[in-house]
Protein backbone atom coordinates (compact mmCIF):
# COMPACT_ATOMS: atom_id res chain seq x y z
CA UNK A 1 0.00 0.00 0.00
CA UNK A 2 1.55 3.24 -1.09
CA UNK A 3 2.04 5.80 1.64
CA UNK A 4 1.51 8.55 -0.96
CA UNK A 5 -2.11 7.54 -1.59
CA UNK A 6 -4.49 9.95 0.09
CA UNK A 7 -6.51 8.25 2.83
CA UNK A 8 -10.11 7.48 2.00
CA UNK A 9 -11.20 7.76 5.64
CA UNK A 10 -9.27 9.49 8.42
CA UNK A 11 -9.72 10.17 12.11
CA UNK A 12 -7.63 12.94 13.65
CA UNK A 13 -7.44 13.52 17.40
CA UNK A 14 -10.72 11.66 17.89
CA UNK A 15 -12.29 11.62 21.36
CA UNK A 16 -15.66 10.14 22.33
CA UNK A 17 -16.76 10.51 25.95
CA UNK A 18 -20.00 9.48 27.62
CA UNK A 19 -21.24 11.21 30.80
CA UNK A 20 -21.56 8.97 33.81
CA UNK A 21 -24.86 8.38 35.58
CA UNK A 22 -25.68 10.26 38.75
CA UNK A 23 -22.42 12.13 38.91
CA UNK A 24 -20.20 9.18 38.00
CA UNK A 25 -16.97 9.83 36.15
CA UNK A 26 -17.03 10.45 32.42
CA UNK A 27 -16.23 7.35 30.36
CA UNK A 28 -13.51 8.14 27.81
CA UNK A 29 -14.40 5.41 25.34
CA UNK A 30 -12.17 6.84 22.60
CA UNK A 31 -9.41 8.92 24.10
CA UNK A 32 -7.30 10.31 21.29
CA UNK A 33 -7.10 8.31 18.07
CA UNK A 34 -5.55 9.02 14.69
CA UNK A 35 -6.35 6.40 12.05
CA UNK A 36 -6.16 6.31 8.25
CA UNK A 37 -7.77 3.83 5.84
CA UNK A 38 -6.61 4.04 2.24
CA UNK A 39 -8.44 2.99 -0.95
CA UNK A 40 -8.36 -0.78 -1.40
CA UNK A 41 -6.90 -1.36 2.07
CA UNK A 42 -8.12 -3.68 4.81
CA UNK A 43 -7.33 -2.43 8.31
CA UNK A 44 -7.95 -4.65 11.33
CA UNK A 45 -8.83 -2.83 14.57
CA UNK A 46 -7.97 -5.29 17.32
CA UNK A 47 -8.54 -5.33 21.08
CA UNK A 48 -10.38 -7.07 23.88
CA UNK A 49 -13.97 -6.26 24.82
CA UNK A 50 -14.35 -2.81 26.34
CA UNK A 51 -11.29 -1.26 24.72
CA UNK A 52 -13.35 1.19 22.66
CA UNK A 53 -13.00 -0.32 19.21
CA UNK A 54 -16.74 -0.57 18.50
CA UNK A 55 -17.30 3.01 19.70
CA UNK A 56 -14.50 4.15 17.41
CA UNK A 57 -16.07 2.29 14.48
CA UNK A 58 -19.49 3.81 15.20
CA UNK A 59 -17.93 7.26 15.34
CA UNK A 60 -16.24 6.70 11.97
CA UNK A 61 -19.66 5.75 10.59
CA UNK A 62 -21.20 8.97 11.88
CA UNK A 63 -23.43 7.09 14.33
CA UNK A 64 -21.70 8.62 17.36
CA UNK A 65 -20.53 12.23 16.93
CA UNK A 66 -17.07 12.76 18.45
CA UNK A 67 -16.65 14.83 21.60
CA UNK A 68 -13.65 16.39 19.87
CA UNK A 69 -11.47 15.68 16.87
CA UNK A 70 -12.50 15.16 13.28
CA UNK A 71 -13.43 12.44 10.81
CA UNK A 72 -12.77 13.11 7.13
CA UNK A 73 -13.86 11.10 4.10
CA UNK A 74 -12.31 11.69 0.70
CA UNK A 75 -10.50 14.68 2.16
CA UNK A 76 -13.71 16.43 3.31
CA UNK A 77 -14.76 16.73 6.99
CA UNK A 78 -17.75 14.62 7.91
CA UNK A 79 -20.94 16.69 8.06
CA UNK A 80 -23.38 15.50 10.72
CA UNK A 81 -26.46 17.00 9.09
CA UNK A 82 -29.10 14.37 8.31
CA UNK A 83 -28.93 14.81 4.52
CA UNK A 84 -25.13 14.70 4.45
CA UNK A 85 -25.02 11.65 6.71
CA UNK A 86 -27.49 9.83 4.46
CA UNK A 87 -25.25 10.43 1.46
CA UNK A 88 -22.19 9.39 3.48
CA UNK A 89 -23.75 6.13 4.61
CA UNK A 90 -24.38 5.18 1.01
CA UNK A 91 -20.59 5.29 0.52
CA UNK A 92 -19.69 3.69 3.87
CA UNK A 93 -21.66 0.62 4.92
CA UNK A 94 -21.81 -1.38 8.15
CA UNK A 95 -21.72 -5.18 8.40
CA UNK A 96 -22.75 -6.35 11.86
CA UNK A 97 -21.57 -9.33 13.89
CA UNK A 98 -24.80 -11.32 14.18
CA UNK A 99 -26.56 -11.90 10.86
CA UNK A 100 -29.60 -13.33 12.65
CA UNK A 101 -30.05 -10.08 14.53
CA UNK A 102 -29.31 -7.96 11.45
CA UNK A 103 -32.02 -9.50 9.30
CA UNK A 104 -35.75 -9.03 9.83
CA UNK A 105 -37.20 -12.56 10.08
CA UNK A 106 -40.36 -11.38 8.26
CA UNK A 107 -38.48 -10.05 5.25
CA UNK A 108 -37.36 -12.17 2.32
CA UNK A 109 -33.75 -12.10 1.18
CA UNK A 110 -34.80 -9.91 -1.74
CA UNK A 111 -36.43 -7.32 0.51
CA UNK A 112 -33.50 -7.38 2.95
CA UNK A 113 -31.01 -6.59 0.19
CA UNK A 114 -33.30 -4.10 -1.57
CA UNK A 115 -33.97 -2.11 1.62
CA UNK A 116 -30.94 0.14 1.15
CA UNK A 117 -31.88 0.88 -2.45
CA UNK A 118 -35.36 1.94 -1.36
CA UNK A 119 -34.07 4.13 1.46
CA UNK A 120 -31.73 5.95 -0.91
CA UNK A 121 -34.26 6.28 -3.73
CA UNK A 122 -32.46 4.09 -6.25
CA UNK A 123 -33.70 4.88 -9.77
CA UNK A 124 -32.25 1.91 -11.65
CA UNK A 125 -33.38 -1.68 -12.08
CA UNK A 126 -33.88 -2.87 -8.50
CA UNK A 127 -34.09 -6.56 -9.38
CA UNK A 128 -30.85 -6.41 -11.35
CA UNK A 129 -29.07 -4.55 -8.54
CA UNK A 130 -30.21 -7.07 -5.90
CA UNK A 131 -29.20 -10.02 -8.09
CA UNK A 132 -25.79 -8.48 -8.71
CA UNK A 133 -25.17 -7.88 -5.00
CA UNK A 134 -26.18 -11.42 -4.04
CA UNK A 135 -23.97 -12.83 -6.76
CA UNK A 136 -20.96 -10.77 -5.62
CA UNK A 137 -21.60 -12.00 -2.07
CA UNK A 138 -21.36 -15.60 -3.29
CA UNK A 139 -25.06 -16.53 -3.36
CA UNK A 140 -25.52 -17.97 -6.85
CA UNK A 141 -27.76 -18.20 -8.72
CA UNK A 142 -29.18 -15.17 -6.89
CA UNK A 143 -32.77 -15.71 -8.02
CA UNK A 144 -32.80 -18.93 -6.06
CA UNK A 145 -32.53 -16.92 -2.82
CA UNK A 146 -34.97 -14.08 -3.58
CA UNK A 147 -37.99 -15.54 -1.79
CA UNK A 148 -36.21 -17.30 1.04
CA UNK A 149 -36.45 -16.14 4.65
CA UNK A 150 -33.52 -15.89 7.08
CA UNK A 151 -34.56 -19.01 9.02
CA UNK A 152 -34.23 -21.04 5.82
CA UNK A 153 -30.56 -20.14 5.43
CA UNK A 154 -27.37 -21.33 7.09
CA UNK A 155 -25.34 -18.95 9.26
CA UNK A 156 -22.84 -18.38 6.48
CA UNK A 157 -25.59 -17.69 3.95
CA UNK A 158 -27.20 -15.18 6.31
CA UNK A 159 -23.90 -13.35 6.69
CA UNK A 160 -23.57 -13.26 2.90
CA UNK A 161 -27.04 -11.71 2.68
CA UNK A 162 -25.95 -9.01 5.16
CA UNK A 163 -22.83 -8.37 3.07
CA UNK A 164 -24.97 -8.23 -0.10
CA UNK A 165 -27.18 -5.64 1.61
CA UNK A 166 -24.08 -3.50 2.07
CA UNK A 167 -22.71 -4.13 -1.42
CA UNK A 168 -25.95 -3.27 -3.23
CA UNK A 169 -25.26 0.45 -2.71
CA UNK A 170 -21.75 0.06 -4.21
CA UNK A 171 -19.95 1.58 -1.20
CA UNK A 172 -16.30 2.55 -1.18
CA UNK A 173 -15.71 1.24 2.34
CA UNK A 174 -17.34 -1.25 4.67
CA UNK A 175 -16.99 -1.41 8.44
CA UNK A 176 -17.29 -5.02 9.54
CA UNK A 177 -17.81 -5.46 13.30
CA UNK A 178 -16.72 -8.99 14.27
CA UNK A 179 -17.93 -10.32 10.89
CA UNK A 180 -17.24 -13.99 11.60
CA UNK A 181 -17.50 -14.20 15.40
CA UNK A 182 -20.88 -15.94 15.36
CA UNK A 183 -20.02 -18.39 12.57
CA UNK A 184 -18.74 -21.94 12.68
CA UNK A 185 -15.04 -22.41 12.04
CA UNK A 186 -15.79 -24.12 8.73
CA UNK A 187 -17.59 -21.02 7.44
CA UNK A 188 -15.21 -18.35 8.79
CA UNK A 189 -12.63 -18.93 6.07
CA UNK A 190 -15.26 -18.59 3.34
CA UNK A 191 -16.40 -15.17 4.61
CA UNK A 192 -12.84 -13.94 5.04
CA UNK A 193 -12.01 -15.10 1.51
CA UNK A 194 -15.09 -13.23 0.29
CA UNK A 195 -13.92 -9.98 1.92
CA UNK A 196 -10.49 -10.37 0.32
CA UNK A 197 -12.02 -11.02 -3.10
CA UNK A 198 -14.20 -7.91 -2.77
CA UNK A 199 -11.08 -5.89 -2.02
CA UNK A 200 -9.24 -7.35 -5.02
CA UNK A 201 -12.12 -7.22 -7.51
CA UNK A 202 -13.95 -4.04 -6.49
CA UNK A 203 -11.17 -2.05 -4.83
CA UNK A 204 -13.29 -2.01 -1.68
CA UNK A 205 -11.71 -0.71 1.53
CA UNK A 206 -12.60 -2.26 4.88
CA UNK A 207 -12.20 -1.66 8.58
CA UNK A 208 -12.54 -5.03 10.32
CA UNK A 209 -13.23 -4.73 14.05
CA UNK A 210 -12.22 -7.85 15.96
CA UNK A 211 -10.80 -9.23 19.18
CA UNK A 212 -9.10 -11.99 17.19
CA UNK A 213 -5.55 -11.41 15.98
CA UNK A 214 -5.80 -14.68 14.09
CA UNK A 215 -8.45 -13.08 11.88
CA UNK A 216 -6.22 -10.05 11.36
CA UNK A 217 -3.39 -12.40 10.39
CA UNK A 218 -5.47 -13.83 7.56
CA UNK A 219 -7.11 -10.73 6.14
CA UNK A 220 -5.50 -7.41 7.06
CA UNK A 221 -3.01 -5.24 5.23
CA UNK A 222 -2.52 -3.17 8.37
CA UNK A 223 -3.29 -3.73 12.04
CA UNK A 224 -4.14 -1.22 14.78
CA UNK A 225 -4.17 -2.60 18.33
CA UNK A 226 -6.43 -0.69 20.73
CA UNK A 227 -6.37 -0.60 24.52
CA UNK A 228 -8.46 1.59 26.82
CA UNK A 229 -9.47 4.12 24.18
CA UNK A 230 -6.17 4.45 22.35
CA UNK A 231 -4.23 2.68 19.64
CA UNK A 232 -1.09 1.35 21.31
CA UNK A 233 0.55 -0.34 18.32
CA UNK A 234 -0.03 -0.13 14.58
CA UNK A 235 1.69 -0.93 11.33
CA UNK A 236 1.78 -3.39 8.44
CA UNK A 237 0.10 -6.63 9.48
CA UNK A 238 3.12 -8.82 8.87
CA UNK A 239 5.37 -6.54 10.89
CA UNK A 240 3.03 -6.22 13.86
CA UNK A 241 2.10 -9.90 13.94
CA UNK A 242 5.59 -11.37 13.50
CA UNK A 243 7.51 -8.87 15.64
CA UNK A 244 5.06 -7.32 18.13
CA UNK A 245 6.64 -4.64 20.30
CA UNK A 246 3.91 -3.70 22.78
CA UNK A 247 3.40 -6.11 25.72
CA UNK A 248 -0.36 -5.99 25.14
CA UNK A 249 0.02 -7.07 21.51
CA UNK A 250 2.35 -9.85 22.65
CA UNK A 251 -0.23 -11.03 25.16
CA UNK A 252 -2.99 -11.12 22.51
CA UNK A 253 -0.76 -13.06 20.12
CA UNK A 254 0.42 -15.52 22.76
CA UNK A 255 -2.99 -17.20 22.96
CA UNK A 256 -3.03 -18.13 19.26
CA UNK A 257 -2.31 -21.86 18.86
CA UNK A 258 0.09 -21.21 15.99
CA UNK A 259 2.15 -18.71 17.99
CA UNK A 260 4.08 -21.40 19.84
CA UNK A 261 4.26 -19.09 22.87
CA UNK A 262 3.27 -19.69 26.46
CA UNK A 263 -0.10 -17.90 26.82
CA UNK A 264 0.16 -14.65 28.79
CA UNK A 265 -2.54 -14.29 31.43
CA UNK A 266 -3.11 -10.61 32.11
CA UNK A 267 -3.64 -9.72 35.76
CA UNK A 268 -5.57 -6.81 37.23
CA UNK A 269 -8.93 -5.35 36.29
CA UNK A 270 -10.18 -5.16 32.68
CA UNK A 271 -10.10 -1.70 31.09
CA UNK A 272 -12.41 0.89 32.64
CA UNK A 273 -12.80 3.99 30.42
CA UNK A 274 -13.96 6.05 33.41
CA UNK A 275 -10.70 5.35 35.29
CA UNK A 276 -7.83 5.82 32.86
CA UNK A 277 -4.59 5.51 34.85
CA UNK A 278 -1.67 7.90 34.64
CA UNK A 279 1.44 6.99 32.71
CA UNK A 280 1.08 4.12 30.25
CA UNK A 281 -2.57 3.11 30.37
CA UNK A 282 -1.61 -0.57 30.23
CA UNK A 283 0.87 -0.47 33.12
CA UNK A 284 -1.50 -1.89 35.77
CA UNK A 285 -1.78 -5.15 33.81
CA UNK A 286 1.59 -5.19 32.02
CA UNK A 287 3.46 -8.47 32.27
CA UNK A 288 6.77 -6.71 31.53
CA UNK A 289 6.31 -4.35 34.48
CA UNK A 290 5.06 -7.14 36.76
CA UNK A 291 8.02 -9.38 35.95
CA UNK A 292 10.57 -6.72 36.85
CA UNK A 293 11.85 -6.46 33.29
CA UNK A 294 10.79 -2.80 33.01
CA UNK A 295 12.66 -2.08 36.27
CA UNK A 296 15.80 -3.75 34.94
CA UNK A 297 15.47 -1.74 31.73
CA UNK A 298 15.16 1.46 33.76
CA UNK A 299 11.70 2.53 32.58
CA UNK A 300 9.41 1.33 35.40
CA UNK A 301 8.90 4.84 36.79
CA UNK A 302 8.07 6.17 33.30
CA UNK A 303 5.58 3.36 32.77
CA UNK A 304 3.69 4.42 35.89
CA UNK A 305 3.86 8.20 35.53
CA UNK A 306 4.85 9.47 32.06
CA UNK A 307 2.10 9.90 29.51
CA UNK A 308 2.60 8.60 26.00
CA UNK A 309 1.49 10.67 22.98
CA UNK A 310 -1.16 9.67 20.46
CA UNK A 311 0.20 7.54 17.63
CA UNK A 312 -0.14 9.03 14.18
CA UNK A 313 -2.48 7.36 11.73
CA UNK A 314 0.12 6.66 9.05
CA UNK A 315 1.37 3.43 7.51
CA UNK A 316 4.65 3.14 9.38
CA UNK A 317 5.05 0.80 12.35
CA UNK A 318 4.48 2.59 15.65
CA UNK A 319 4.18 1.62 19.29
CA UNK A 320 3.31 3.54 22.44
CA UNK A 321 5.52 1.83 25.01
CA UNK A 322 8.41 3.08 27.17
CA UNK A 323 9.90 -0.42 27.38
CA UNK A 324 9.87 -0.90 23.59
CA UNK A 325 11.62 2.46 23.27
CA UNK A 326 14.27 1.41 25.79
CA UNK A 327 14.97 -1.78 23.86
CA UNK A 328 15.82 0.44 20.91
CA UNK A 329 18.61 2.05 22.86
CA UNK A 330 16.50 4.67 24.64
CA UNK A 331 15.66 6.24 21.30
CA UNK A 332 11.85 6.34 21.20
CA UNK A 333 11.84 7.76 17.69
CA UNK A 334 13.06 4.39 16.41
CA UNK A 335 9.69 2.86 17.21
CA UNK A 336 7.66 5.84 16.06
CA UNK A 337 6.20 6.82 19.41
CA UNK A 338 3.65 9.30 18.17
CA UNK A 339 3.69 12.81 16.80
CA UNK A 340 6.07 14.22 19.40
CA UNK A 341 8.76 11.69 18.48
CA UNK A 342 8.70 11.43 14.67
CA UNK A 343 10.92 8.79 13.17
CA UNK A 344 11.35 5.85 10.85
CA UNK A 345 9.50 2.61 11.16
CA UNK A 346 10.87 -0.18 13.29
CA UNK A 347 12.19 -3.42 11.91
CA UNK A 348 10.59 -6.81 11.92
CA UNK A 349 11.77 -10.32 11.38
CA UNK A 350 10.10 -13.51 10.33
CA UNK A 351 7.24 -14.10 7.94
CA UNK A 352 3.69 -15.23 8.20
CA UNK A 353 1.67 -17.77 6.33
CA UNK A 354 0.50 -16.39 2.97
CA UNK A 355 -3.08 -15.17 3.04
From TrEMBL:
Matches recorded under InterPro entries: AAA+_ATPase, ABC_transp_ATP-bind, ABC_transporter-like_ATP-bd, ABC_transporter-like_CS, Oligopep_ABC_C, P-loop_NTPase
One of the record's GO molecular function terms: ATP binding
UniProt entry keywords in alphabetical sequence: ATP-binding, Nucleotide-binding, Transport
Residue stretches of biased makeup (Basic and acidic residues): 333-343
Pfam families tied to this protein: ABC_tran, oligo_HPY
Ranges of residues in domain ABC transporter: 9-253
Annotated region (Disordered), positions in chain: 333-355
SUPFAM superfamilies referenced in this protein's UniProt entry, alphabetically: P-loop containing nucleoside triphosphate hydrolases
Protein name: ABC transporter ATP-binding protein
Lineage, opening ranks: Bacteria, Bacillati, Actinomycetota, Actinomycetes, Kitasatosporales
